[in-house]
Amino acid sequence: MTLQECYAAMGGNYEDAIGRLRSERLVRKFVLKFLDDGSFDLLCRSLEEKNYEEAFRAAHTIKGVCQNLSMDKLQASSSRLCESLRNGYTPEAGALAEEVTADYHATMDAIRAFQKESTE
C-alpha cells in the first residue's frame, strides 16, 4: 500500500497533506507517529468517567492533528464531537463519539496496513 492509497482508505486528502508538509517523507513520518498518539484513549476514558472538559480537550487534539495531516474524515467527525462537548455534554455527543470511534478505527487500520506493507 502506498501512502496515497493509505490516505484514500482513511478518507484523507493526500495532495493537501503533501502541500502542507512539502514532502512525502514528512507526511509518512507524522502519519506513522499518529499510531502512538494517546488522544483517542484519553477521549474514551474521559467520556466513560463523564469528564467532559477533558473529553473536549482530547477531541480538540484529535481534530487539530487530523487537520494538520489532512485526515479529513476523522477530522470532520472529531470536529463535530468537539463542538458538541465545548460547553459540556450534549445529547448528540454519544452518537458523535460512536462516529469518531468508527472513523478512528478506519484511520488506524489504514495506517497499520500502510506501515506493514511499507516495511515488508
Description:
With 120 residues, the chain is mainly alpha-helical. The chain is 79% helix and 0% strand. Helix 1 runs antiparallel to helix 7, helix 5 runs antiparallel to helix 6 and helix 6 packs antiparallel against helix 7. The longest helix is centred in the last third of the chain and has 27 residues. It is elongated. 33% of the residues are buried. The model has no long low-confidence stretch (mean pLDDT 96).
Structural key phrases:
79% helix; 120 residues; mainly alpha; 7 helices
Provide the helix percentage. Answer: over 70%
Q: What does the main sheet amount to?
A: none
- Cα-based radius of gyration, to the nearest Å: 14 Å
Strand content: under 5%
* Outline: elongated
User: What order do the helices and strands follow?
Assistant: HHHHHHH
Q: Low-confidence parts lasting 5 or more residues at pLDDT below 50?
A: none
Find the count of extended strands (DSSP E, 2+ residues).
0
Count helical runs: 7
Overall mean confidence score, pLDDT: 96
Question: In angstroms, what separates the terminal alpha carbons?
Answer: 11 Å
Overall SS class: mainly alpha
